[in-house]
């Protein structure tokens, strides 16, 4: 199964949400800032948008999806002011295309990569034992974000390759459109195990962390932020500054992110 029905539905819903945001983005830009942010930032960005409104009296219209989906929307001319990616590669592509303000780019956050299971009470999985994860998975599926496009999936595949598990587990992977859709597969019990960010696991009471992947098993999980080069919104730079300020820092830290910018 290359992708579950739940993952496909989640992808359609996110695409619709992005389209709806783009449809109203032009008038929204006059009184606020339009932000594209990685799906794993959902809870933190809810708080940041509220704090931004309280502090500045301006709105923050935030669209959340896989970083690859959002970056491609930007490449196709989406009228966005600020982009926050879940990896450096997609931001690098936009920078190479001249689509972001490179000198205002900042590495804002870091995250961890974890193995989660449905429910609570299961014993931890020893990732140093190559037989442990396949044995725990059994005949079930391993939920992951798209392994060739979405940062969480890319990190997860790299970690499994590093641990010598990818060839064994690849046929058992259920790919979802973004990391929150992968989390939902585990949360609802459609998949017994999944690979998500540590902050995603902390945001869902229906899953438990069974293991944390070693930092050296995957590239560093870095979230860069930058204003878009074609944005004429004076609030774009101000919002990037706000992301690095004390109010946003507290919001990110409450969700378990390691704040590196600011």
From TrEMBL:
The complex is composed of two ATP-binding proteins (ModC), two transmembrane proteins (ModB) and a solute-binding protein (ModA). It holds the Pfam family SBP_bac_11. InterPro entries: ModA (IPR005950), ModA/WtpA (IPR050682). Molybdate binds at residues 40, 67, 152, 179, 197. GO terms for biological process: molybdate ion transport. GO terms for cellular component: outer membrane-bounded periplasmic space. It comes from Tranquillimonas rosea. Keywords: Metal-binding, Molybdenum, Signal. This is Molybdate transport system substrate-binding protein. Belongs to the bacterial solute-binding protein ModA family. One of its GO terms (molecular function) is molybdate ion binding. Residues 1-30 form the signal peptide.
